[in-house]
Specification:
Oligomer: heterodimer
Shape of chain B: globular
Mean pLDDT of chain B: 89
CATH superfamily of the largest domain in chain B: Alpha-helical ferredoxin
CATH superfamily of the largest domain in chain A: FAD/NAD(P)-binding domain
Strand content of chain B: under 5%
Distance between the termini of chain A: 39 Å
Helix content of chain A: 10-25%
Strand order of the largest sheet of chain A: 3-2-1-11-22
Structural class of chain A: alpha/beta
CATH class of the largest domain in chain B: Mainly Alpha
Shape of chain A: globular
Radius of gyration of chain A: 30 Å
Low-confidence stretches of chain B: none
Radius of gyration of chain B: 19 Å
Chain lengths: 1001, 175
Amino acid sequence: MGEKQGRALVVGAGISGIRSALDLAETGCDVTLIDAAPHMGGVLSKLEYQFPSDGCGMCRMLPMADRDTCLQACLRKGLVHGGIDLMLSTSLKGLEGEPGKYRVTLETEPCIIDPNLCTGCNRCSEVCPVTIPDPFNQGLSTTKAVHLPVPHAIPNIYTIDMDHCTLCGECETVCPFGAIYLPGDGRLELKIPRTLVEMDVGAVVLACGIDYYDPTTGINTFGYKELKDVVSNIELERILSGTGPFKGSLERPSDGRVPSRMAWIQCVGSRDLEFPACSSVCCMIALKEAVLVRKRSGGTIETVIYYMDMRCFSKEFEAYRRRAENKYGVILKRARPHSVRHDRNTGGLWLYITGDSGVREDEAFDMVVLSLGQRPGKSVKDLAKITGIGLNPLGFFEAPLSGVGDNTGVFAAGSASGLKDIGESVIHSSSASAMALKVIHGAKKITDEETEPLNGFRDVSTQVPDIGVVLCQCPNGPDIEPQVKSIGANDVHVSGIMAMDRICTREGWDGMLEALAGKPFNRILVLACSPQLFLDKKAAISKAMDLDPAYIDFADIGKGEPLASTVKMGLARIRYADRLNSMASTMVPKVLVVGGGLGGMTAALSVADSGFEAVIVEKEPRLGGNLVWLDKDITGYDFGRLLDNTCQQVENHPGIRVFTNAVVEDSRGGPGNYTTTFKVGGNDSKRIGHGAVILATGGREAETTAYGYGTSDAVKTNLEVEQALKAGTMDPGDMNVVVMIQCVDSRCDTREYCSRICCKSSLKHALEMKRINPDLGVYVLYREMMSYGFSEIYFKEARERGVIFIRYSLEQKPQVISGTDGPVVKVHEPILNRTMEIRSDLVVLATGILPSAIQSLAALFDAGVDDYSFFKEADSKWRPVDAVNGGVFACGLALGPRDTKESMASARAAAMGAVRLISSRPAGVSLVTAGIKHSLCILCERCIGSCVYGARTLDPDAGKIRIDPVACQGCGSCAAVCTNSAAFVNNYLDQQMLEIIDAAI
Amino acid sequence: MDEMIKLKEMLNPCIQCGTCTASCPNEVDMDLVPRKLWRMVLMDRNEAIFDSQTFTLCSSCYLCTLRCPRGLPLTAAMAKLKAIAAKSDLAKYRKSTRFYKSFMESVRRHGRVREGEFMALYFLSMKNPLLPLSFVSLGMQMMRKNKVAFELPAKPGTGNLDRLFKKVAEIEEGL
């Protein structure tokens, strides 16, 4: 954790909220993370598999620097971080003040079950007589009125569904810990006062997510909830889950039979009259689900997805779609079924469809999955009222393009401003936290408060282990003291055993601290239940005993494992506990930004606004990159103004230095401490030290020779049209027909990915031309219109204004033939099944985006590029802007195609990542870090090759392997490949592990 | 044709999803399925449109209108095509347009349809002396069941519903 900043409030503890909370906590803010639900995780707690990896990976969001501040465990279960106060069943009720100095009012639902006392023993649920549909499984299975909201969560506190509870009192009497306080008889008395808390915060991040469309609120032609085998996509996720209603086996809800044919219907509640926008992620979700079903069933279940446009617009998604079709045999059909009907004779479900040819292609299925569209979250309206953030016409938070000059300290993160996939949510959350950090940092009072001294504990590293065992004696559990005492008596290192009464209670805990204070033990083992929650308590023991937390450990005796082995394993582990004494090198509080386009400038501003120095190295003579030629975006936002504003801010910011005409030459070092040389103006070599680097090298419009480009002036690219419209050299009033061809050289074998922004650009140009000349004939030849999210509205508008959209396929590409009065475009019209010839005045080609060549630059910093030569992120979902080693970040087009708004978000996210790293000030090396015994090392360098984080290097002068303790994440690959046991992981030593295994068996 | 431009503007938002076709109970008998028909309207293929029987087969069940994801008034669009065909008195559709006209004329005169008169008006308007022969078999059957009676057309003159028809004509004029 870094230098102390102010406090931030994060509303919503789903993926986005967790990301924002971690961002702010890692940069030294105190964070209060609240969620209206009694558990954290949001919708992700119900999902197990994410595209494109078909797995999870949420733990990759855990801090990489100063790892000991955070519980290193599955994040789907829960988040335990020293700097984050989690308040569940809590919502924001009031906000007053100004950015940097807000006073917020939080309201917590009354606790019927005391979370501090509940141990999750399940006895209440066993006796509860009320059975209810399980909300966790979307009602596909049942649970009791008193139940676990999420089976895998930690802390796992039972909750009571008061809408169904009959107040019979059974649970209250059976609870061994007295954790349940049912209100008195009669429902009217159920008005336990809600707890109101007021606190001061500098900024607020709203990550309250979204809701899903409920088909039963509409005309429901698909029979959702009427026909049992028509399920929503989230219900299917639950059915596929091991904790789901059928324990992970794929069955039809109606009769438990394995379906043989499944259909997905896309755009249910999206792109229709009620909700004219696209929900952006359902196409990929349907593909993923179909792939999972195909994989699970060994290809025996036929899967058909009925779609309008398959919107696989992110970098790797088109490849995923191809894999789904070609490798897994998922069938995609472009059609829009209007209803589902039940076949009484066969029990099947009929879909009524017309194929492209116009012939009816009705089909029967066993199970139908509805891809439900997004709706604004329930709390969005209230939060907008409280915080004053605007809502767009569809009821989502307005996400202003620039974030510049908006006088607010409240920022929307993740899906709250429109549904996004996990990767985008993570980016937009980090972007929101970067803006929040700016406000908090700006409002920071300079205090003389001394920060706590580092490593000020008594030095016990050379002492013989002298273990003190604290035993939490549960009054309701068996008396375990004698057994533990006898184990202790047989272990020479144990010198004291103290049985305490319930350390889970305040009194018990204080009593333990009192008993431990001043004791000479140099290792402490606490035997208790749910010890993973004791992270902050470790610090309290450490303070009371003046002992490094490295020497304090917990063993879980509440899980029902044999007590003897648990205790012996704990003893074996604590005996070898140690902290490596090699100090981490200090973080250089400076960030190098390569590239001075919109992304680079935004990233630099974000870094500088957080109180660190940013250095921009731009190879061109001026800043601006692609923004220089862009005119305006589809909403009419003026890019010229954005460019001027941003350049001005960069030039005037005291924390930013700009070098133009400069090229990076070489770099050494690792995360936290790089030394980089760059050449300015061709000969002047400069050297700077920096802690992190952001690659904002951008991209460019792809060149092409297709469709007669280069042979005729009437064939232009999107860029040329944008420039001509901006400069006024092109007058749509002089033209009769314009043809736009999408996906030129894109989404094909030679260039697999979708460039994502061309459809929006073409729509923008089409609308602009139609505005100037309403009689102009505009034809857009497309394969799928990637007008995802709210840009779907412009797709609709273009149609309403008379733009004609003609779909073509890779097999039947359009042809451009030069004619006497302008090019003639020949294209096959699939609906009419005829080839059309369109004589046109202008043909516009959407040629897509290519990245700048960054392979060698990335390699300088130990980062890489992907199959398409964009920056290779560590994980497209959970670490979407950083390289594996944690010190290199990328944003904007260098990362992959994205529009200006998304580029700015990724830039702030990259800056946030860099600030997270350089503001961390490790209090020593993290406990689980690799080391090396030089006496055993034969310099075979296997460990260097095995380290994915680039933490190990050979020091040729000393003839030794060096380990960068900041980069090392303690994964243990080096220890596994080392033939001599020279490479080891601290706290996971060979001898220690063997003894633990010994104790276990 | 102005009317066709109006129709095109009405149908511009169409996304060619085919929901109309999949919903249509008469689609099997149509030479151009509704989806194709609407596409032709957008592509200004007026000749092909008025070469097809599709819109005369529309039974105004409104399923397509109900289900159209863009909320387009497709049944009204079909009616509009019928109206254009009637107004322009296109030879191809005379059978049905004059059939309708004769029916309404009889209604205008009496406030209800008189089958015999209606058919007589129809035969007269078609100016085809052989046409009545093709209805002989159907006519005999219906007469046997007292569904129709021999009846000569009444004098045109004023009818019971004159005021109503005038009003309708006025409204249509204003459209």
